[in-house]
From TrEMBL:
Protein name, as recorded: O-succinylhomoserine sulfhydrylase
Family label: Belongs to the trans-sulfuration enzymes family. MetZ subfamily.
Transferase recorded as keyword: yes
EC number(s) given by UniProt: 2.5.1.-
Database matches in Gene3D superfamilies: Aspartate Aminotransferase, domain 1 (3.90.1150.10), Type I PLP-dependent aspartate aminotransferase-like (Major domain) (3.40.640.10)
Amino acid sequence: MSNKRPLHPSTIAVRTQTERTQQMEHSTPLFLTSSFTFENAESMRAAFADESDDNIYSRYSNPTVDEFAHKIALLEKCEAGFAVASGMAAVFNSFMALLKTGDHLLCCRSMFGGTNTVVTKFLGKFGIEFTLVDAADIDNWEASVKPNTKMLYLETPTNPQLELIDLEKAGRLAKKHNLIFNVDNCFATPFLQTPADFGADLVIHSATKWIDGQGRVLGGVIAGKKELINEVYLFCRNSGPTLSAFNAWVLTKSLETLDVRITRHSANALKVAEKLQKNAQLEWVKYPFLPSHPQHEIAKKQMSAGGGIVCFEIKGGVEAGRKFMDALQLLSLTPNLGDSRSIASHPASTTHSKLSEEERSKVGITPGLIRISVGLEHPDDVIYDIEQALSSIN
Ligand SMILES: *Cc1c(COP(=O)(O)O)cnc(C)c1O
């Protein structure tokens, strides 16, 4: 389109597409090919000498993968993007490409389990130090900044505790100390929150969750400032966390419906949270857009809706949590989230079962904590299933 009027994000998500081929396809094509051909030796030489943008090999670039990464970069208001095989590949490679021995990483304590393992168990192997800070203590984070602090990393809302971090304050701190501000925006998606508005230099995603939205493929993406994404690209084209073109095709098609889906997921989740709030068998219910959420004001400031995850604490601890899971009839018992199908998980008996109760409570995993990923079924059916499971516990 030739006029300069900026397009809305939902239009960008639908209409950003690889240039049409001579087959005149309407839906975006899938370039399932490991390498690309050249007309002659000279064009091949020029491509290898970086004198042309021609595709060479799919570990370096692939039109379908690039379409997906480019679309995410536009939606996240970032200059560039690079797609990888999973959310964890996005997290790990954003560290590996930009940190080196002797650097220090400032990190929020409540974060995705895999990220926590990478930070606390593996970064030390490369001589990278870290400090974990609490979401609620953001006004004191500055005391943990050291002369060698290079990056501030966080996710908001956090998985699974649904803690929120004030992106404006975090962005200001990063700017003041010249830190690379790296945000995992998986739970909100670019349709509910764009961290670049608050100064994020990098925005990463597990595309496996809401972006796919139907539990089919794994994927990840790192978007951000061009100079940083260039470093990520140079590292990844050699280390090889490549996203499959097939998965990229599924994910770029999924982006066409993300706005509609995440809006409905959020509306359904709010209905579920509001109804459960009145349930006497629950200690508490947590959802960013419930006024009872301790950081509700932050949610309203930086998110346009609350997302699809609702958490609650069942009275009766671990045993009650297990009984609740067994009594569900509609909801799926599976560790994924962000699916059209509603999902229940009980972290204390599954993802966090190897930790002691004390370690769990430090990261906000209480014994009866249940995480619901609210799907696209009719919300009354989701509520009915949760309520019948709760009432069968006693
Ligand atoms: C799932 C998840 C990841 C990891 O993504 P994978 O695609 O499973 O590798 C990272 N961050 C958050 C917040 C997640 O929920």
